[in-house]
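Shipment paperwork, digital attachment
Item: protein structure file
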Amino acid sequence: MKKNPSPCCVPSKQHADVWQASQQNSSSRIRAIGGSTDEMILLPGGPFLMGSESADTFPNDGEGPVRQVTVDSFWMDQYAVRNRDFMKFVQETQYITEAERIGWSFVFAGDLPEGSPAVDAQSVHGTEWWRVIEGATWLHPEGPGSNLAARADHPVVQVSWNDAAAYAAWAGKRLPTEAEWEFAARGGLEQNAYPWGNELTPDGKHLCNIWQGVFPVSNTAEDGYASTCPVDAFPPNGYGLFGITGNTWEWIADWFHPTYHQHATRHNPIGPPQGTARMLKGGSYLCHRSYCNRYRVAARSSNTPDSATTNIGFRCVRDVA
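Attachment content:
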């Protein structure tokens, strides 16, 4: 098993025996109409300008070009899937996550208790702020000794793409395409950097959970949180969706490719039919402009489908019957 970093601030496991099982062809969009629409928002769909060509983009991510894309109407979870939601799934299905099966996962060093011997655990070459922690799972996000006390309404973390897809299928839903996610995140605004506009902190007000200070050594937590926060901690966007950027990355249905979308259909586009990494959108509490300015709605990143960390979660969508 390799423990190498992927782009941005999310390391990857690259555990071939696991992720190859999920490498199904995705040349057509899966429909899901069986899930409950409780705590979901019906989004109108329609045309919008997707992507970005701003100076803040990362060339290898393939954010551009800006193009007009149309998505059909769909339902989206108002909140990221919470620990209490995932708990219900596990209790009803006895599902075992990949981190539990593999036996270890990635934990941000700054989330480990001061003085913990885990601080000296194996680090990830190139992103030394990550630690390889045995026993880190969704129930014990920072490893043995950690728990979900007071975190029932925080987004579930330490879940892989495969785990997220399994939850979505159980709920009668699916993971969003990149186009659906970006349409939703924009909240009806056109070509703004963030779900609320172009200023990160309008009138000095923090509107998402990201890093403040000097990454990765000092987080001043001016937004009120040094790690994950409740899914409704900040105001919703124009569509009523909470926490769509910052807090935790969100898994996307599409396989990642930096240029595939340039030639894909402009109506309900999806990613390439196969690949080695799945898309991530939205950024996380570890994102900072100096290193990972990917909490912008057009920003994109990726990770292998078996990877799990303390800053990756997900939300689901379902189609309109």
